[in-house]
Structure formats: C-alpha cells, structure tokens
Amino acid sequence: MIIDKRRVEGMVLLNVEGIIKLGQSAEFLVQSLERSLEKDEGHVLLDLSKINYIDSTGIGELVGYLGRFSERDRKLILVSPSERIRKLLAIAQIDSLFPTYDDLESAITAERGIAAESSEVPN
To answer: What is the CATH number of the domain that holds 71?
Structure first.
C-alpha cells in the first residue's frame, strides 16, 4: 500500500493506493490516519480512487476514525470510492455516515462551501 499526503485548501489529502485488508495494509492506513488526527489540522480527504480492495477490517478502521475525527470537530471525507466500496458501505448501512464525493474538486468545493456557510454571522 502507498499513501501520499499533502495539504489542499486547508485540508489534508491522503491518496491511498493498493489494498486495505487485515494485517500490514490496514495498520499502515491506521498509522496515517492517526498522524493526520494528531499532527494536522482541518478535515481529511481520503482519496480511494486507486484502492483495488478493502475488507471488513479496513471498513471498521474507517468507521472508528470517523468517530475520532468527529470528536475533534473534523471530518473524514471519502473521495472517489469505487462502486464496490460504495456498495460495501451501503450493505453495512454506514454509507450515510461519511461525506462522499465523486472527485477531489467536488469535495473541496462542497466542503469549502459548507465551512463558509457555517462561519457566516447572521445580520
């Protein structure tokens, strides 16, 4: 598994490539999410466009970190998940928990818009 991290529009982008399953790959994902949670600021965009496979362990880790990010008033945002990953999330009935976007541009535009709306002061 390969994870490339960079800053985009005040958020952290994690480009994930390969497979996420029980063992070393899931642990590598956990370490990356943990570092972003502890050391970075802003929401985390998790680009899944190059994920070939994810098992229940990987899904479980995503759900666990979704809660941890939420506790800190941050989001774990899924970007470009495959149809297979979308179906897995739907079957587990957790698809509505994750903000999910078809591409990075849509995610950035939507999340920046949400942040701007929430920071506006009413007259």
So the answer is: 3.30.750.24
Q: What is the C-alpha to C-alpha distance for residues 42 and 36, in angstroms, rounded to an integer?
A: 9
User: pLDDT tens-digit profile of 14-53?
Assistant: 999 999 999 998 999 999 999 999 999 999 999 999 998 9
Question: How much is the pTM?
Answer: 0.88
Show the domain range for 45. Answer: 2-119
- Please tell me the total count of domains within the chain: 1
